[in-house]
Amino acid sequence: MTARLFCSKPFSWFEVTGWQKPQGDVYLCCPTWLETPVGNLQEQSVAEIWNGEKAQAIRHSILDGSFSYCHKIRCPFLQSESGPVQLSEDVTDPMMRMAIEQELTDLPWGPQEINCAFDKSCNLSCPSCRHERIIESDQSVPIRLIQSKLEKEALPGARYLYITGSGDAFGSPFFNQWLRTMRLGDAPKLQHLHIHTNAQLWTPRMWDRIPEPVRSKILSAEISIDAATAGTYVVNRRGGSFERLMENLEFVQSLRRDGPLKRLTFSMVVQNNNFREMPDFVRLGLRFGADYVYFSQLVNWGTFDDDEFRRRSVHLKGNENHKEFLSVLDDSMFDESVVYLGNLARFKGQSLEVSEAEFPELQSV
């Protein structure tokens, strides 16, 4: 019998988003990789969503091995069989073993990992994500409602908290305040707090405003950079300063060296104007002590029309620079242990083209 893959995400992950209105749609994985929402936190309780009909259907698709709700081309873990994806027989986590052996879809535990992506506020306006700088001041009521529900209904049992999958942890006035006022007594099982940021605001002064007990839980961080040179950075990280980034990365590096950070990731969304900088981006990660240098495909969040998306998506079949992109991946820098090519891994070492049919946003064309 062929060994079956298992993904722990839908049995652990609870991602609350704010990209659509009403805010509060919940996903059991990154919505880019698993596009089916399982409920809305403004309209339902955490418990109703967590073991609702849609959530159980998604878990069933993992247990039967079909992964029928998953976008297999975009998911870096399915492509590389890494992270939460592994052979069922190799799973050792007690909760996940119970789910596999008892074929559980209605789980006796609540969300273990919470991704707070319900506030789009950010100090930058990167073209791959948005048309303009967004501070969600007019959405303060739903944002605070969702945060309150999470604190009361999900955080008491959660082990991991991710701030934020939708904007910037420090650039959002709501998430910034939450970090400065968080009470760990409300999250007695919390072991790990993850920060996702562009690092433009991650200064010693900002760090000192977070209470020490909360800082001690910030064990990992991902810094979105999308460039290895100042010229490309000013385009891809619109509103940011490459010089300020370099200064702040020195400070973040000290937090990785001296604690509390135990894992530091630099990430790049690969596109037509930065793919040639990919080897230098690895060097940048090595320079500042990153544990992972993560590359990913460009995704259309509604910021591009079809023609613009094709022009920017260097991994797509027909892009004028696709063959050069493949040749860049032959660089020896990608053999460094810190490199994680994610959903670009299958391009390395072969002449591979991705069909547009694999991208829903282009199927109507």
Notes on the structure:
There is one protein chain. The protein is α/β, with parallel strands linked by helices and 365 residues long. It contains 13 helices and 12 strands. The protein has helices spanning 46-50, 53-63, 76-80, 94-102, 140-153, 173-181, 204-208, 212-215, 230-236, 242-258, 278-287, 306-312, 322-328, and strands spanning 5-7, 13-17, 25-27, 39-40, 85-87, 113-117, 160-163, 192-197, 218-224, 263-270, 292-297, 339-340. The strands form 2 sheets. A 10-stranded mixed β-sheet has the order 4-3-2-6-7-8-9-10-11-12. Strands 1-5 form a two-stranded antiparallel sheet.
Q: What gap, in angstroms, lies between the N and C termini?
A: 41 Å
Number of helices: 13
Give the oligomer, counting copies of the same chain as homo and different chains as hetero.
Answer: single chain
Shape assignment:
globular
Spatial order of the strands in the main sheet? Answer: 4-3-2-6-7-8-9-10-11-12
Radius of gyration based on Cα positions: 20 Å
Number of strands: 12
**Overall helicity:** 25-40%
Uncertain stretches of 5 or more adjacent residues: 351-365
Strand content: 5-15%
Give a short account of the largest sheet: 10 strands, mixed
Let me know the average pLDDT: 93
Question: How are helices and strands ordered from N to C?
Answer: EEEEHHHEHEHEHEHHEHHEHEHHE
Question: Which structural category do the helix and sheet elements fall into?
Answer: alpha/beta
